[in-house]
Write a structure and sequence with these properties.
The chain contains eight helices and no strands. By secondary structure, it is mostly helical. Helix 6 packs across helix 8. The relative contact order is 0.07.
C-alpha cells in the first residue's frame, strides 16, 4: 500500500482537485486510500491497482459533489430564521369583523340610492366599465354619469363613516 501511495499520491491529488477543488481533494484522497486498503484486506484481487485507485477516487468525487448539491438545496439557519420572522399580513379578527360590517353598511347605502345612480355606481366601480359606455347604456350625458358616480361615492362614504366603530 505504501508503494501505491507514494507512486500515485500527487497524480491522484491533481485528479481530485479538478473534480472537487483543492481543499476537499486532500480529504477525498485519504478516503480513497483507506477504501483501497480495505478492499485489499477483503482479499479483493486487484488486476490494475492504479485504475482501481482512480475509479474509487472518481466515485468519491461524484458522491461528494452530489452531497454538495443536496446541501446547497437546504436552507441555512439564517434563511430559516428570516422566513420565520416574516410577519403575517392577514387582517386580524377585529379587522375582519370591521370589513364584514363595512360590506353590510355599503350594501345598505347602495340600496338607499336612486336606481340610475346605483346602476352608474355599480357599472363604474364594481364592473369597471367606462363612463362613456355607462352614458350610452343609461341614455345620459357623460357629465351626468360622472355626477351620479360622484354622488354615489359621497353617499356611501358618509354612511360608512357614520357606522364605523371607533378604534
Amino acid at each position: 500500500m505504501a508503494i501505491l501511495y507514494r507512486s500515485h499520491c500527487e497524480a491522484l491529488l491533481r485528479f481530485l482537485s479538478r473534480k472537487v477543488g483543492r481543499h476537499e481533494a486532500s480529504d477525498l484522497m485519504h478516503e480513497t486510500f483507506i477504501r483501497v486498503a480495505r478492499a485489499e484486506q477483503g482479499r479483493t484481487v486487484l488486476h490494475n491497482e492504479r485504475a482501481f485507485l482512480f475509479q474509487v477516487a472518481a466515485n468519491l468525487a461524484v458522491d461528494h459533489n452530489r452531497a454538495q448539491v443536496r446541501q446547497s438545496r437546504l436552507l441555512s439557519p439564517v434563511e430559516i430564521d428570516d422566513l420565520l420572522a416574516v410577519t403575517d399580513e392577514a387582517p386580524g379578527p377585529d379587522r375582519q369583523a370591521q370589513g364584514r360590517l363595512d360590506l353590510q353598511n355599503l350594501a345598505a347605502a347602495l340600496r338607499e340610492l336612486p336606481p340610475r345612480r346605483a346602476e352608474a355606481f355599480r357599472l363604474s366601480r364594481i364592473e369597471g366599465v367606462s363612463h362613456a359606455y355607462i352614458a350610452a347604456r343609461l341614455g345620459v350625458s357623460l357629465r351626468t354619469v360622472e355626477a351620479e358616480v360622484r354622488m354615489a361615492l359621497d353617499h356611501c362614504a358618509d354612511r360608512l363613516r357614520s357606522s364605523r366603530i371607533p378604534d
